[in-house]
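input
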Amino acid sequence: MKKRLMVLTILLLIAGSFAVQAQETPKENKAKYVFYFIGDGMGFAEVNATEAYLAAKKGKIGIEKLSFTKFPNFGMATTFAANRYITDSAAAGTALSTGSKTNVETVGVDPSKKKLRNIAEMAKASGMKVGVITTVNMNDATPSTFYAHQPHRKMYKEITTDLLNSSYDLFAGGGLKNADAKEALIAKGYKVTSSRKDFASIKKGSGKVYAMCPNLDKDMACRFSIEQDSSDIKLKEFVSKAIEVLDNPNGFFIMTEAGKIDWANHANDASAAIKDILALNEAVKEAIKFYEKHPDQTIIVVTSDHETGGFAQGSNKTEYESDFSLLDKRPVPEKAGISWTTHSHTGMPVGVFSVGMGTENLRGYIDNTTIPKTIISLMGVK
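output
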């Protein structure tokens, strides 16, 4: 009897020990699926004007919220570069991809030209699949900061070589400026498409993919949303396809840039800018659909690298009058009640909209370098 009691006591002690260990072992709680959206050149004034436009189209005064302005977490991020207060896309993109400030015109390197590791590279090294999507040329400043490391943003051929060596799983949207790389991409194992028909043939299991817009302009960028027709592949379609292709047990990281918002703002084209923000909004909805299926494992962050154009809701010519519905067509910004301060960038902070585990850390007034640092921490990658 004593032996039985002794054995039972020992077993209970062992079981208790395991129970304590189980309680002390933290449950893995990492972001498995990451959507990182960058509206290049998209200031908060443009976001709000897009909401006012949607309301005006319904005959209302006020706003109709966008998918991402409904997110529970909102912050404002400063955008200055290491050597200049008003940044460019290369320095801002590097800040958003690496969490480090650098000089303007440099891609993925610090001010001393030392290579900086970016969030996409960390995701790939951890076993996640990686996709980079943009509506401008793929070797433009912002997308290149997620795979390249070069001392100048216009080193297109060298940046393209970095793309080829990245082994990322998906590139989609714009082509490659000043670089004829189709054969090199095929040699690296990429399925390259440039038509809607070939795009439709891309399925899960297709392997590495480079899917280009069918109607590229002279800079190898996709057309403005305001100019697109049924032959164009929309930004939301690229995001949807990326989800289909990249979804796997190890998770994925997808960076999507709505780059032509910036180009529209450089041209002070309010109608084109708003239509490209709406295209971004539709793309974010694709991520939200995925998030709703995997809410405990997915994060979505929507932000901008900087504001372009000094977009203002108000004009000396219209004073207190405005009619945002006129922004259906170009050019009508002054009649609509819109004005601009510049054809260049500004130093204004930009919005940060987020949803998902841990993204409440992106609330408040933060620096742009905080965004990737927070995402990297939530992903648990190094």
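quick obs: Residues 270-293 form the longest helix (24 residues).
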